[in-house]
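=== RUN LOG ===
request id: a7f3
mode: sequence -> structure
chains: 1
length: 304
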Amino acid sequence: MNRIIYYLFVLPLSYLPLYLLYGLSPIIYFMCYYVISYRKKVVKSNIQKSFPEKTAKEHEFIMQAFYLHLSQVIIEGIKNLTISKKELSKRFKITNPEVVNDLLKKQKSVILIGGHYGNWEWLITSQAFQFDGKAFGLGMPMSNKFWGQAINKKRERFGLKVIHSKNYKEALAEEKNPYTLLMLGDQSPGDTNKSYWMNFLNQETAVQFGTESLANTYDLAVVYFNIDKVRYGGYEMTLTLITDSPKDLKWGAITQQHTELLEQQIKKKPYLWMWSHKRWKRDLPADLNALRIEQEQRFNKQFR
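=== RESULT ===
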């Protein structure tokens, strides 16, 4: 059934011009918001807890704006399967690519870290031609094997290589030339005891520590990316260097900074973030201070 849906419906649909596909956006919005109420309880709870100072009316406005954006991201995700390099270059621009390219010229590989904000799929697909050097994308495989393989094949068509988050060591160890490694750091981590806990959007939050760990393991520069929606079907990405010397920073500094940058971004335009993620499903450890001390000691023993 998945093959039939993909080859007879989704893939042929992706060949249509975006202006025609966007005509489906109101239908998708209506279905997600009013008919199936896609994760509506999760979205509502996340927004209310993140912005306790806002009124119920303001919460509702953010919700509706989010579902409108979600409907457009779904359309753009479908188009992403076959969008040309030329069109993608016009619709997804980087304002300051030299932040990364200058590091690559100095033989310094780079972690690109950000969140599920704006349109991350167009970044994934265009990463290989947006920057110099080899491009990797790190992530967990989709629960449905067919869809995961089909989507990753399309993501890789311009040169990106998608690597499993549990198999990154072999891929990175063999790479001798400078590269970019794309990571999305705003999903709920699997292990709270290995997570970095901090206040994020007015809530104690477990943050994935993978970016900081990889940066220190392979001595990688860390660059935060901010994807902003500047027009209908048009995005601009701005880069911020967090560090090119990760081993000079204290435990937690990298994770703290890239998460705070994402928080600032969300507060400016909250509807562009993926509120439907179950971001706060991890329970706060019983003794957080003791855990932090243990984590810092373990980190310093390994990297300092």
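=== NOTES ===
Residues 2-275+294-303 form one domain.
The chain is about 50% helix and 20% strand.
=== END ===
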